[in-house]
Write a structure and sequence with these properties.
By secondary structure, the chain is of the alpha+beta class. 38% of the residues lie in helices and 20% in strands. Helix 10 (212-219) runs antiparallel to helix 11 and helix 12 (261-281) packs antiparallel against helix 13 (320-334).
Length: 420
């Protein structure tokens, strides 16, 4: 039986989330901005039609925004994550085999589902009815073809938001793929598209029909897997369980330049808390930390300094207090006065499950008491992130990212619940 793998993708997800609680924005050209309100990361169809580009710096769009009344909002990650969880929860009821691929995408295995077409439309309608988030459904025998089918479902109104590649004859597949640029294929970016074009591969059909041995010799095994997926051979399996992270990075660009070491240490405490929370959530500990500081590389008029330091820990840990002491020490070592710092962060490495580590005979074994961190995580989960924090965290606000246009956290903050 041919696999029926559906990719369900939320349309203009961040914008759609903002419109759930703001029906007055339904037909308004709307964009959502990245951290510090820097670049466009989500656009409504109306904003796309006016020429707003993805990842375009907002300062370049201001004149166009004033002319056409384009509204810009800051990213509201708490809202987006919560609505994403609701969408994924609905999709999980359609199949025990599914993979949450990103915040707005989910693969669902519908192989063997009776009345597949009706179920696909029902899936789309139910997500819309229960969350007010519009989605499109693309179905194919492989992940790559399901992604391509989703692209078609979005671009062609006749599909009404659902497209099944498996329903096409061989001739129809050839004709369709010859009309789609190779850059639309999952995993083929701008640079790779340009390289493929030099070899006469400009459409998806060109890539599918290319000589496999030559393709692998020129572009490697990854592009060969993409080609085989386009030919209907499964090379990328469904990941039903999300693998534990081997490296955790927590960093942020500051809302304004930072010149004092105390402010840097305050910011680093927040990054440590976020990273260690993720570490404990997957039941792991880290044996290595790296701290880095960056000045603004776009300011050629300012002196540049981008230090980093990697430190093996005496004992693997996921304790925020322990990691924070080392991070605080490293910031003090790396900091130099006279520079304006724009970004900082911490990386946790050599991550392994708790209890699995190579003991050091020269270091005394340390008993690990997890009660304090368990209590901290429990309180922050119940009452909101940052409710309980270490003493060095939150003393300064000047480094916090700019969110001048942020909407309320309608679903995760009692004070922001809308009144009707």
């Amino acid at each position: 039986m041919k696999q029926q793998l559906a990719l369900v993708d939320c349309n203009n997800f961040y914008v759609s989330c903002e419109r759930v609680f703001r029906p007055d924005l339904k037909n308004v050209p709307l964009v959502v901005l990245s951290n510090n309100d820097g670049c466009v990361v989500s656009r409504s169809n109306e904003a796309k039609a006016l020429g707003i580009k993805m990842a375009q710096p907002w300062f370049e769009c201001k004149a166009l925004a004033e002319e056409h009344g384009i509204l810009a909002l800051s990213s509201n990650y708490a809202l987006y994550a919560d609505l994403s969880n609701r969408v994924m929860s609905i999709l999980s009821t359609y199949s025990p085999r599914h993979e949450v691929y990103s915040i707005d995408e989910c693969f669902v295995d519908l192989t063997g589902t009776p009345q597949l077409k009706e179920v696909s439309y029902q899936m789309r309608e139910r997500v819309m009815a229960w969350t007010d988030i519009p989605v499109c459904v693309g179905i194919g025998p492989t992940k790559t073809l399901a992604k391509l089918a989703n692209h078609i479902a979005k671009k062609h109104p006749r599909s009404k938001g659902v497209f099944n590649y498996n329903d096409l004859t061989d001739a129809q597949q050839d004709k369709l793929l010859s009309q789609i640029e190779v850059g639309e294929v999952w995993g083929v970016g701008r640079r790779l598209s340009a390289r493929l074009a030099e070899h006469g591969i400009q459409t998806v059909q060109d890539l599918r029909a290319a000589h496999t041995a030559t393709l692998r010799a020129e572009f490697g095994v990854v592009i060969e897997k993409v080609q085989r997926e386009l030919q209907g051979t499964v090379c990328i399996d469904l990941q039903e369980m999300v693998p534990n992270k081997k490296q955790i990075v927590s960093s942020r660009s500051f809302g304004q330049m930072v010149r004092e070491v105390e402010v840097l240490k305050d910011a680093m405490s927040t990054f440590v808390a976020n990273a260690c929370t993720k570490l404990r959530a997957q039941g792991s500990h880290a044996s290595l930390i790296q701290v880095f500081l960056h000045t603004n590389r776009f300011r050629s008029d300012l002196p540049q300094y981008n230090p980093s330091f990697t430190l093996p820990l005496p004992q693997p840990t996921n304790d925020s207090l322990v990691v924070n002491r080392w991070a605080d020490y490293l910031v003090g070592r790396l900091f130099k006065p006279g520079y304006e710092y724009k970004k900082a962060g911490i990386t946790l490495g050599e991550i392994a499950p708790v209890g699995q580590y190579q003991a050091d005979w020269l270091e005394p074994s340390q008993a690990t008491d997890t009660r304090l961190m368990d209590a901290l995580d429990g309180l922050n989960k119940r009452f909101g992130r940052g409710t309980v924090k270490v003493s060095t965290q939150g003393a300064y606000q000047s480094w916090q990212m700019r969110q001048e246009r942020k909407s309320p956290s309608y679903t995760t903050d009692w004070d922001s619940v809308p009144c009707v």
